[in-house]
Specification:
Blueprint (H helix, E strand, L loop, with lengths): L3 H4 L4 H9 L5 H5 L5 E3 L15 E14 L5 E8 L2 E7 L6 H4 L5 E10 L4 E4 L2 E4 L11 E3 L8 H14 L2 H4 L7 H4 L6 H9 L4 H8 L4 H26 L2 E2 L7 H9 L6 H14 L6 E6 L5 H14 L3 E5 L3 H15 L6 E4 L5 H13 L4 E4 L13 E7 L6 H9 L7 E2 L1 E6 L5 H7 L4 E5 L10 E6 L3 H13 L3 E5 L7 H18 L5 E4 L5 H13 L4 E4 L12 E6 L7 H8 L10 E6 L5 H12 L3 H12 L1 H5 L18 H17 L1 H12 L9
Length: 687
C-alpha cells in the first residue's frame, strides 16, 4: 500500500487532517466516496429562489453588522439585480467580517426561508468572487468529515490524486477481465472516477441509490475481498490436522434408546453432517443453528458421545453461569447412567470444587467439562481435548475462542474439532457473508407436540388484568416468569427494579410462592432458585434478562415481559422461547409504555406477528444491521463499509460462487486483492 506521505503531494498539516479521517494511503483516500452532491454549476437570481431548496446566488454586500439581541449574531444584507436577501450567522469569526465589507461580491450557497421580518439564509457557505469568475463545470461532491477537517481539504486531496498521481495504473484490475465481463462491470479506476466526478444528474441519481454500475463494481469487489478472506481461512484450517474420530455408535445407540422423545428429521440430518465431519483428519468448524427449543443440545450431546467413544474429551462452554449450569445438569442426568463423568468449572465455585474439576480435566477422568469463560484460563489443562462445543458462540470474542482451541493442541500439531451453536437464527444473507469460513447446519423444525406460543400486547395501564391472569395460571397448577425491564444505563438500577418487583409480587400474591433470580446472585443461590422453579416449589419467578437463554421449565406457560419496547427483537424472541417448552398451551405478554417510538412500534409489531425465528432474525437484521445483530465487530471478520446485504444480495451470491475458484486459479492476485481491500481490517482467522 502506498502511503500518502510517500507521494510528497501533501503538507504535514494536510496529512494530519486526513489521518483524522483514517485516510493514510492512496487506496483509502480514493475510496473516501462522496455522501452526496451539490450543484454549483448555475447561479439563481434571488427572486427565483425556492424555499427550502439548496440554491446558489451571486450578490453584492450592502452592509454587515453584529447584533446582540436576542443573542450575539452577524447579520449581512446582500442584493443582486433581482432582489435582496439577509444572511444570518449565529457562529462567526472576526476575520469573516472582512469578506462581508460593503461592495464585496460573494457567491452564496444555502437554503432560504422566511422569518417574521426577512427573507434569509442561515449559515450559508460563502466565498469572495469577482465579475466573470467561472462556475464549476461538474457537480460538487460532498464528503463525510470530522472536527477540524473541511470539505476543501478532502476535495483538494482527492483532486490531487486524480491529477498528479498515476491512479489509473495504481487501481488497475488484478483479475482477468472475464471475472467482471459476465456481470458487465466497469474497471475499478473508471468506477471510482465516476463516483467522485459524475457527469450529470442521471449518473448522480444512480450513484446515490447505489445502483450505478460503478457502485456495483465497488460493492462486488468488497464482497469478493470478504469471501476470499473467509474462504482462505477455511482452506487454511482444512490443511490443519485433527484426530479422526470414527463413530462406533455404542454409546450413541444406548443414549438414543433412553430418550423420551423422537428426533426430528432435521436433527437426524444435522447429526449425520457432524458425524461425517468428526471422522475427517482435519478439524471440524461447524456452526449449528436452530430456533429456541429445536433440540440443539441433544445433537451436541450425540456429537460428544462420538468423541468420548474414541477416548477424547469434550469442552462444553456457555456464556452465562445459568446456561452453563443447565447444560451441566442436563448432561449429568443424561450421561451418568452411561458411566460418563461430567465435570463443572466456573469462576464462582469454591476452591475445593474447582481443584477437583481441574484434576478430573487434566487426568482425563472427566469425559465432558462444562463451564463458562473459566475454561479459557491457562491453568485449565485437558488430557486430550477432541471437541469444543461453544453455545451462543457470538457472545465470545475471537481471542476467547482461539484460547479454547489452543487447549487441544498436542505438540502444536493436533487441533480439536469445534462445534458452535446459536439459538439466534441467522438470516441467509448474513450467514453467507459472515460465516463463509464455516460449515453451517440448520435445525429448521421444532419437535412434535409443541404448541405455538401465543403473543399478546398489553399497555401499562392494563397491569391489573395481567396480575389477575398470573393468579389464574398459578392456581391452575402452571408457573409464570415475570421479566423485569432492561435498564442499559445501570446494572444497579436493573437489580433495584427486580428486587422492588419481587417485593411487590410477594405483597400482591400472598398465597403464591414467589422467587427472584438475577445476574448478581451467587451461583449457588441462582442454582437453588432455578432448581426450586424447575421442581415447582416456586410458582412465580421474577427475573432479569439472565434467563434469556437456556432455562428449560416445561410447566411454565406464561411469561410477562415488562417494558418490552426497550428490548431488541432477538432478545424478545429468546425470552419468549422460555415458555412453550412442553405440550401445554403457552402465552407471552409484552407489557409496553404508551409513548412508543416508531422503532419500538416496529419491533413489537414484528414479534407479535411472527413466531418463526428466521423471519424475526431477518427483520432484526433490517432494523439493526449486521454489526449489532451478531456482534461481528468483535468476531475478527472484516465489516462491510459500502455493500448492503439485503440490497446487494445478488452480488454477494456472485462473489461467493467465484471465490474458491479465484483462490485456486489466481492465488497471487487474490492475495493482492485482499491486501488492497483489507489492509486496515482485522484479518485474524476467525476461530
Amino acid at each position: 500500500m502506498t502511503s500518502l506521505a510517500e507521494l510528497k503531494l501533501f503538507t504535514p498539516s494536510v496529512l494530519n487532517k486526513l489521518k483524522k479521517l483514517g485516510l493514510e494511503d492512496v487506496f483509502s483516500l480514493a475510496m473516501h466516496l462522496p455522501i452526496r452532491y451539490i450543484d454549483e454549476t448555475i447561479v439563481t437570481p434571488i427572486r427565483d429562489i425556492e424555499m427550502g431548496v439548496l440554491s446558489q446566488i451571486e450578490a453584492e454586500v450592502i452592509r454587515a453588522e453584529i447584533v446582540y439581541k436576542p443573542k450575539k449574531m452577524l447579520i449581512v444584507q446582500v442584493k443582486d439585480t433581482s432582489g435582496s436577501l439577509q444572511l444570518r450567522f449565529l457562529h462567526f469569526y472576526p476575520s469573516q467580517m472582512k469578506m462581508f465589507e460593503s461592495g464585496n461580491r460573494i457567491r452564496i450557497l444555502g437554503e432560504a426561508r422566511h422569518n417574521l421580518f426577512a427573507f434569509e439564509m442561515i449559515h450559508p457557505q460563502c466565498k469572495l468572487t469577482r465579475e466573470g469568475d467561472e462556475l464549476p463545470e461538474a457537480l460538487t461532491p460532498i464528503y463525510s468529515l470530522v472536527a477540524g477537517v473541511g470539505q476543501k481539504t478532502v476535495k483538494d486531496a482527492i483532486d490531487k490524486l486524480f491529477h498528479h498521481f498515476d491512479l489509473k495504473n495504481y487501481l488497475k484490475d488484478l483479475f482477468s477481465p472475464s471475472v467482471y465481463e459476465k456481470l458487465r462491470l466497469p474497471n475499478l479506476y473508471e468506477s471510482i472516477k465516476s463516483i467522485h466526478h459524475p457527469k450529470d444528474f442521471k449518473e448522480v441519481a444512480s450513484h446515490e441509490a447505489f445502483s450505478s454500475m460503478s457502485y456495483k463494481r465497488i460493492i462486488f469487489d468488497e464482497f469478493l475481498a470478504q469471501q476470499l478472506s473467509l474462504r482462505s481461512n477455511y482452506l487454511i484450517r482444512r490443511a490443519l490436522t485433527a484426530t479422526p474420530l470414527k463413530a462406533t455408535n455404542k454409546l450413541t445407540n444406548i443414549f438414543m434408546g433412553h430418550l423420551e422423545f423422537d428426533l426430528t428429521h432435521a436433527q437426524k440430518k444435522v447429526i449425520q453432517e457432524i458425524k461425517n465431519d468428526l471422522e475427517k483428519n482435519y478439524p471440524m468448524q461447524r456452526l449449528l443453528q436452530g430456533d429456541v427449543g429445536s433440540g440443539k443440545t441433544v445433537v451436541a450431546t450425540i456429537a460428544a458421545l462420538q468423541v468420548i467413544e474414541n477416548g477424547s474429551q469434550v469442552a462444553f462452554m456457555a456464556p452465562t453461569e445459568i446456561l452453563a449450569e443447565q447444560h451441566y445438569r442436563k448432561l449429568y442426568k443424561w450421561l451418568t447412567p452411561l458411566n460418563i463423568k461430567v465435570a463443572w468449572l466456573t469462576g464462582s465455585q469454591s476452591k475445593k470444587n474447582r481443584e477437583t474439576s481441574l484434576y478430573m480435566t487434566q487426568s482425563g477422568e472427566a469425559h465432558i467439562v462444562v463451564g463458562t469463560h473459566a475454561l479459557f484460563q491457562e491453568h485449565v489443562i485437558f488430557k486430550k481435548l477432541g471437541l469444543s462445543i461453544i453455545d451462543e458462540q457470538h457472545r465470545f470474542g475471537v481471542e476467547q475462542r482461539l484460547a479454547l482451541r489452543k487447549k487441544g493442541e498436542l505438540n502444536k500439531v493436533i487441533e480439536p474439532h469445534q462445534l458452535m451453536m446459536s439459538a439466534t437464527p441467522i438470516p441467509r444473507t448474513l450467514s453467507m457473508s459472515y460465516f463463509a469460513d464455516l460449515d453451517v447446519s440448520v435445525i429448521d423444525e421444532l419437535p412434535k407436540g409443541r404448541e405455538a406460543i401465543v403473543t399478546k400486547l398489553f399497555s401499562e395501564d392494563r397491569r391489573d388484568e395481567i396480575l389477575k391472569r398470573v393468579h389464574e395460571v398459578c392456581h391452575a397448577g402452571a408457573q409464570v416468569y415475570w421479566v423485569c425491564p432492561l435498564i442499559e444505563e445501570s446494572e444497579v438500577l436493573q437489580l433495584q427494579t427486580a428486587e422492588e418487583t419481587y417485593l411487590n409480587m410477594q405483597s400482591h400474591f400472598k398465597n403464591l410462592k414467589v422467587g427472584l433470580v438475577h445476574g448478581r446472585m451467587k451461583s449457588s443461590e441462582k442454582q437453588k432458585v432455578m432448581s426450586d422453579f424447575v421442581k415447582g416449589d416456586i410458582q412465580l419467578l421474577v427475573a432479569t434478562t439472565v434467563i434469556e437463554v437456556g432455562v428449560d421449565v416445561p410447566n411454565a406457560t406464561l411469561m410477562v415481559i415488562e417494558n418490552a419496547e426497550r428490548m431488541g427483537l432477538s432478545q424478545l424472541h429468546q425470552l419468549r422461547g422460555r415458555v412453550g417448552r412442553g405440550s401445554l398451551k403457552s402465552t407471552c405478554i409484552l407489557l409496553f409504555q404508551k409513548k412508543l417510538s416508531e422503532l419500538a412500534r416496529q419491533r413489537l409489531k414484528v414479534i407479535f406477528e411472527n413466531t418463526d425465528g428466521f423471519i424475526i432474525a431477518q427483520e432484526d437484521l433490517n432494523i439493526r444491521g449486521p454489526g449489532e445483530f451478531l456482534g461481528v465487530r468483535q468476531s475478527g471478520v472484516p465489516m462491510l463499509r459500502i455493500a448492503n446485504l439485503n440490497r446487494d444480495f445478488k452480488l454477494l451470491e456472485e462473489a461467493k460462487t467465484i471465490a474458491d475458484q479465484l483462490l485456486e486459479d489466481y492465488p497471487e492476485a487474490s492475495h493482492l486483492h485482499l491486501k488492497r481491500w483489507l489492509s486496515h481490517a482485522n484479518e485474524r482467522v476467525k476461530v
